[in-house]
Amino acid sequence: MKSLETRLKNPLRACTASPSKLPPSPALGEGPHGDGKEDKSATPKALGERDSPGSALSQAPRARRAVLAAAGLGTSAEPFVRSCALSPSPLGGTRFGLQRGGAASLPQQRGWRRLSGAAQGERLAMALIRNRLGLLVLGVLVTFVLYLLLPAIQHERFTSRAGSHKAQARAEEKSQQDVNVTVLTGTIAGSPSILFREGFLLQRAGTPSPKRLEVIFLHGQAFTSKTWEDLGTLTLLSEEGYRSIAIDLPGYGNSPPSDAVSTEQGRVAFLQHVLKELGIQRPVLISPSMSGRYSIPFVLVHGAQLKGFVPIAPVGTQDYTSQQYQQVQTPTLIVYGERDTGLGAQSLQSLQQLPKHKTVALPDAGHACYLEKPREFHEALLAFLGELQ
Residue 240 in contact with residue 382, Cβ under 8 Å? Predict the structure, then answer.
């Protein structure tokens, strides 16, 4: 193709020729064979007008062949030369112009439009991607800035909260400087000797001693007086102004066993002895589970010596009649766990016959409900003690 263009270069540059130098064309009114007949097969060539037989455009085939001949090319190069646009020369001659690919056909124009639309769509998609990337980068930067600032904000809030908590703690400490509780142990002389634990409220000199309701705690078969200390009950009641005492029953904890408590009368006498030795008058008696063997007969016989009675699913309640229960006038708080379907439900049926009773069922708790729900138990106990004062 390069050689073809080189060979056509000079002839195409000299394409502007006068009509005299072009091959003669048939005269007006003559056909191609000079027979005087008009060639009706000719078609308009430019601007929608019919070309005259002598015009430059009607001589295009001859001009192409002349160009080929001048270039020394055969008719095989004629399709390439057809890409030359033929137009009248300003000097009256014929001018050829080489155009890229010649005139575009309708399918080509449609293809170009499709390509142009696809390119425009691609440009729009790239612009959209760039915008989204920009937004993403902006979001990452904002998140990073917030990540850097958040610890400082949280530290400031924590510092302010810590300061308020410290101020509140100092105020509470200042208000409680006159209150301090310690749990001490002692021994009740006798046969057998009984160990007890008592919460002591230590106060500064000059602080008035409050009037104290006395509360005595018994325990279940698997427990001792230490249970009430570990649970915080002795300390809590002492802080609230009550005298709180827990004892080890004979044969449990640090109290040796004794044959004196093998009978009902012996157990009642045992409690009478304990109250007398401790100097307790009209206490509130707390009695869970096994300790019912001591508390129930004592309440039925000496109920008037008690300020209140708190049975917690005690044993031995079925050994007495309804008439015996109905004679007791001691205020009673019956406590049991909702899941205690054994002793809890059984003792409730008997204890409900006490004339002055209230019932508290600790939710989702079993037999040792005071251990499983200490907060709820303490709240109920303090509320009951408050009513007795």
Answer: yes
Q: For residue 129, which phi and psi values (nearest 5 degrees)?
A: -60, -45
The whole-angstrom separation of Cα 243 and Cα 215 is: 6
Catalytic residues: 289, 340, 367
87-91, 124-128, 189-193, 334-338: least confidently modelled range: 87-91
> What are the tens digits of pLDDT across the range 62-103?
655 655 555 454 454 445 445 444 444 444 444 444 444 445
Beta bridge partners of 17: 94
d(CA 331, CA 282): 12
Q: Angle at the Cα of 169 (from 163 to 170), degrees rounded to 5?
A: 90
Residue carrying the six token digits 């540059």: 13
Strands (E), 226-293: 243-247, 284-288
d(CA 70, CA 133): 62
Query: Is 72:39 a contact under the CB 8 Å cutoff?
Result: no
Model pLDDT for residues 70-79, shown as the tens digit of each residue:
545 445 444 5
Instruction: Say what the pLDDT of residue 134 is.
Output: 86
- What 3-state DSSP class applies to 289? helix
HEC profile of the chain:
CHHHHHHHHHHHHCCCECCCCCCCCCCCCCCCCCCCCCCCCCCCCECCECCCCCCCHHHHHHHHHHHHHHHCCCHHHHHHHCCEEEEECCCCCEEEEECCCCCCCHHHHHHHHHHHHHHHHHHHHHHHHHHHHHHHHHHHHHHHHHHHHHHHHHHHHHHHHHHHHHHHHHHHHHHCCCCEEEEEEEEECCCCCEEEEEEEEECCCCCCCCCCCEEEECCCCCCCCHHHHHCCHHHHHHHCCCEEEEECCCCCCCCCCCHHHCCHHHHHHHHHHHHHHHCCCCCEEEEEHHHHHHHHHHHHHHHHHCCEEEEECCCCHHHCCHHHHHCCCCCEEEEEECCCCCHHHHHHHHHCCCCCEEEEEECCCCCCHHHHCHHHHHHHHHHHHHHHC
- Going 66 to 68 to 74 to 76, the CA torsion angle's sign is negative
Return d(Cα 21, Cα 26) in angstroms, integer.
15
